[in-house]
C-alpha cells in the first residue's frame, strides 16, 4: 500500500511526464519497488473522481472491539502473566475469546504448550548399563524372556 507522499509523487510525475517516468524515477525518491503501471494509472483516476489520492473509506461493519485501547489492554495482560489462557484473559478483560485471539494474532503472539521431557540424572547412564547387563544375564537363563515383556515407547 502506498503512502500519501508516494501517491502525490506518482500523481505529479504522471501529469508531468507519464507512467514510464513514474516507474523510472521511483527508485531515486523512494527505497522501494515501484508500483505497477496499473496502480500508477489508477491514482490520477481516483484523484479526478474523488479529489483525493487516498483510498475511499472501506465499506462494512466498523470495528468496535479491536480498538487500540483494547489491544493495549490485551498486550499488557499477556506481558504481565503470559501463562494465562485466552479464555481467562477474555473473561478478565470483558472481551470475547475470539477477539482476544484475533488481537494476539495481530501482534504476532504464538501460543504453545511446553512439552515436559524426562531429564537424565548424572547416574542414569550407569544404571542403564547395569540394567542391560542384568537383562542379558536373565535372557541366558530364560530365552523367551523378551517375548514376555510388553514394550512401549511411553515414558510413564
Automatic annotation (TrEMBL):
Q: Which organism is it from?
A: Homalodisca liturata
Name a Pfam family for this protein: HTH_Tnp_Tc3_2
Single Gene Ontology BP annotation: DNA integration
Q: Which GO terms describe its molecular function?
A: DNA binding
Sequence ranges assigned to domain Transposase Tc1-like in this UniProt record: 74-133
Signal sequence span is: none
What protein name applies here? Transposase Tc1-like domain-containing protein
Q: Which residues cross the membrane?
A: none
Alphabetized PANTHER family for the sequence:
HTH PSQ-TYPE DOMAIN-CONTAINING PROTEIN, TRANSPOSABLE ELEMENT TC3 TRANSPOSASE-LIKE PROTEIN
